[in-house]
Design brief:
Elements lengths: L1 H21 L3 H7 L5 H33 L1 H21 L3 H15 L2 H10 L6 H26 L6 H20 L14 H4 L1 H9 L4 H15 L1 H14 L3 H52 L3 H12 L4 H10 L7 H31 L10 H19 L5
């Protein structure tokens, strides 16, 4: 079973690498294709991110339900192949509409994260799931280390170079998965496909009927809305506030990814052991609030980099929430659960990039009443405070 787990972790890592590769070059690429000033390019970046998230939201439960019926293996292998072709399309795109098409396809293929998480749930005992979901988060964090720093360095060879590398990685992993990935869906846990459950809002609604899940889904949603401030505006924020180059933006995101990987691979277990899953969520919210307010108020790029590990401590929240919710649904509904969680995070990504980039543009434009590039981070801090209030107001289950 070791090689299939390695494949799953590589799949999540390559998703993160693909996202991280292109973040450092997006401001320059959008401006290169006629995106206007930096503030205007940020809004275009929000539109592209939202397009990606809309597709992920719509197809997350669909693909999760398909994997419950037909198996995890074919879904993952097909998605990786299509993902590779999508990166080739974006590498040769000569107009904004082609980038939009690429984000549509990319959002659909990225929806297979629900299938990857369902695979982990299939092969894990209930008490092991929170920690193993932490490994999935660590793989994403590791990809976010390699992606931005590589993308920043590849920017020296042009704004398209990162896309070619992402295409090669996705295709290579599809080949690897063809040989090593075993199927975990059997007659014992196979579930018929139902379009009502595959409806993203229907999936969230059906899960919301389970005891204690509604509030947890809301907190999960709020976390992802706030967390999305990093991929949504970080490159624009760094360029505007500190005049960072693509290479420096890549290095800063790599530092954040290293911290995230260390948190979710190394710290999630002791947090769960000493504080429990609910206490871990509370601690993560406190770290997030502290980090977001600090980043918004700092004027030195050096101290922002120093403070990055504190920001990463908020990464203990999702695996703890996933662990709680996965124990409250049946074994044959794990794909549906992970699909709904993917839809919740994607719904957050539909809203967040538009709101965060618009907020950034409003506070950095030449006509802005107040110059405050860190305004999106203050907004994210307010959402974290709301999430913390919801958790504190809920009663601990025996």
């Amino acid at each position: 079973m070791r090689l299939p787990i390695i494949f799953i972790l590589l799949t999540v890592m390559i998703d993160a690498i693909g996202i991280g590769l292109i973040i450092p070059v997006m401001p320059d690429l959008i401006q290169e294709l006629g995106g206007g000033t930096l503030s205007q390019a940020a809004i275009w970046g929000g539109i592209l991110s939202t397009t990606f998230a809309v597709m992920q939201f719509l197809f997350g439960p669909v693909i999760g339900g398909i994997s419950d019926r037909f198996g995890r293996r074919p879904v993952l292998l097909i998605a990786l192949t299509v993902m590779a072709l999508d990166y080739v399309l974006m590498a040769v795109a000569g107009a904004m509409w082609l980038l939009l098409v690429g984000r549509v396809i990319g959002g659909i293929t990225a929806a297979t994260q629900s299938t990857a998480s369902a695979y982990i749930a299939d092969i894990s005992a209930p008490h092991e799931r929170a920690a193993r979901f932490g490994l999935v988060g660590a793989a994403f964090g590791a990809g976010f280390v390699l992606g931005p720093i590589t993308g920043g360095l590849l920017a020296e060879y042009g704004t398209r170079a990162p896309f070619w590398l992402a295409a090669g990685l996705a295709f290579a992993n599809a080949v690897f998965g063809w040989f090593v990935l075993t199927e975990t869906v059997t007659d014992a846990n196979r579930r018929s496909f139902n379009w009502r459950r595959a409806n993203p809002l229907g999936a969230l609604r059906s899960l919301g009927k389970l005891p204690g899940v509604t509030k947890l889904l809301f907190v999960y949603f709020l976390y992802h809305v706030g967390f999305a401030v990093y991929p949504a505006v970080w490159s624009y924020f760094g360029k505007e506030r500190f005049d960072w180059s693509p290479a420096t933006i890549g290095l800063s995101l790599a530092l954040f990814g290293i911290a995230m990987a260390l948190v979710q691979a190394g710290l999630i277990r002791p947090f769960l052991k000493y504080f429990g899953e609910r206490g871990t969520v509370i601690a993560g919210q406190l770290f997030s609030i502290l980090a977001l307010v600090s980043i918004a108020s700092m004027t030195s790029g050096f101290w922002v980099l120093v403070f990055t590990p504190v920001a990463a401590l908020g990464g203990i929240i999702p695996p703890a929430l996933q662990g709680i919710m996965s124990t409250r649904v049946a074994d044959d509904a794990q794909g549906e659960l992970q699909g709904a969680l993917t839809s919740a995070s994607a719904l957050a990504m539909i809203l967040s990039p538009l709101v965060m980039t618009y907020t950034f543009a409003q506070f950095t434009d030449a006509q802005a009443p107040i110059y405050l590039p860190g305004a999106p981070f203050l907004l994210a801090a307010a959402l974290s405070i709301l999430g913390l209030a919801v958790v504190l107001a809920s009663r601990r289950k025996n």
